[in-house]
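Q: Second attempt. The first request was missing the SMILES, so the protein and flavin-adenine dinucleotide are both included now.
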Amino acid sequence: MNPFSYARPTRIEEAISLFGPQSRYIAGGTNLLDLMKENVERPEQLIDITQLPLKSIEETPEGGVRIGALVSNADLAWHALIERRYPLLAKAILAGASPQLRNMASTGGNLLQRTRCYYFYDSTVPCNKRERGSGCPARDGLNRIHAILGHSEQCIAVHPSDMCVALAALDAVVLVTGPQGERRVDFRDFHRLPGDQPERDNTLADGELITAIELPAAGYAEHSAYLKLRDRASYAFALVSVAAALEIDGGIIRSARIALGGVAHKPWRCTEAEDALVGEPAEQSAFEQAAQRILQGASGFEHNAFKIELSQRAIVRALTEATEGTAA
Ligand SMILES: Cc1cc2nc3c(=O)[nH]c(=O)nc-3n(C[C@H](O)[C@H](O)[C@H](O)COP(=O)(O)OP(=O)(O)OC[C@H]3O[C@@H](n4cnc5c(N)ncnc54)[C@H](O)[C@@H]3O)c2cc1C
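A: Got both inputs this time. The predicted holo structure:
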């Protein structure tokens, strides 16, 4: 690990003004410290943001909820308001990591955790995400956990978060403050596909701090499901995950949200498939059509092509579970 300086500001403006070209914010440290130990991240300055006033969960005047960026994953999942109104989010969080990690991990850090691609973590091999233009050994290497949608010549890594899959389905908004002031970013525009800039996971500018996440009023509390398929029953990242949320009236779908995790560089939404479900009976045949539509452009590699069918089946199952009603 390289030497670095350390600061622990108590005000948001102070944190932002301290940020320099080689700085990193640190919250729970559950991802950043691992990356530093592996020599993937070598910051010259760590700005510890844990003393900033970003730990509250509040209702918004519009009927939604604002979640501070430093709310731990555990506190968020077990919060009464979240459990009651956004059970999809609570379930997705509890499907991830371990109780100890969820106690440390923050809401903002979860969005910014980096891919689990083996080659990205191994600084002895090339990786376009680590060092632009160096190559992508995953394409012809071990690619079981890699992308089947939205990948590029340069990168086939996936975003590993569970929480973000639910946030994508719930149409969350990310609140950001930086040197240029405050802005709001729709969740679907926050993470990005790799294209020819795989080193960029998201659309944050240098020094920008996530301050909160906002959820709209619609929480799909009656009909939602989070399904996570993985190699081990616990403590493993998703091979494929699905956040499914439906509004159903008299057996007919009035609104549908489907987000996939583990399949792309960002949580994957296909609004055409969601729109096509509206007005259809909440039944298997409609779900199968939606699943086919979502995976239409998918392409796999030597070890992960199975994920295409797996994703389709997972979508149908998650939508079926959502239709049956959100389990307690
Ligand atoms: C063994 C293991 C298993 C795991 N399993 C899962 C799993 O199954 N599912 C899952 O979803 N996750 C899993 N995780 C990942 C875990 O959820 C993340 O590491 C965690 O959410 C990151 O939050 P943090 O606060 O610790 O971030 P940190 O490690 O502190 O920071 C991560 C990144 O975010 C930046 N950052 C943090 N907060 C802010 C902010 N407010 N504004 C701007 N930048 C910020 C940091 O600079 C850094 O780049 C696992 C982690 C481990 C170690």
